[in-house]
Amino acid sequence: MTLRRKRVDRDNHERWLISYADFITLLFAFFVVMYAISSVNEGKYKVLGLSLGSAFGAAVAKPSESRTIRLTEEEIYLKSIIDRRDARLAEQQRRQNERMQTLVNTLNQVMEKFVKNGQVNVSRTNRGVVLDINASALFAPGGAALSNAAQITLTDVAKVMVDGEQSIEVEGHTDNLPISTSVYPSNWELSSARASSVVRLFIDQGITAKRLTAVGSADNHPVLGNDTPEGRSRNRRVTITVLTPELERGTSPQQANAELARSGAAPTPEALP
Description:
By secondary structure, this protein is of the alpha+beta class.
């Protein structure tokens, strides 16, 4: 008889790879879950639950067709709210730009003579429409009383701004030469008094007092260096700024949910981005 060769069993030293692969798979699933819940989002939870249920073979109930349609209707309604808000803000911005540009053009016409001789500059900045008037066109040196010619000119300016609702800031500026008199101990008092003189005239011409602010800045905001007579002359000025009004705020999530409640739809915690 032929003798069978005895089979030699060898130890398998790579069986640990199976356990290691299972561990890595579980670790990967753990970090996927941690990433999914790092941002609270109801939609992510639903997608994660459906995906895990499908992956592990569990019977997962699918959302009803009516519920899916309901969510889609809510999303469409929210989008319509956002679109209406954006359109409203865009129209407000357009009308506001037109009003501010019209104000620039009108002030340039009223102050044409002073603009040509360099005593007045009209410009538009992010803050609003700025009317820069050299102090020599308004006051005597070292004084804060408006001259007769200045009163006539500023009265015309007031007529342009009297019907608006924008806030108006009047700021007095001086050069860096010190002043010390019985009336004005320093440039702070002088710049404040000059701004107040312009504000009082505006109030007398019918501009509502609550729209006006008087600011004294002394020599803290020069437009040129104070080392030359020309620079000091430019720095002695009164700046009248018609501030750009703020647009209305956008629709908040609470407002959007209120809109949904009035329409009979269920509110959502993430109504708006």
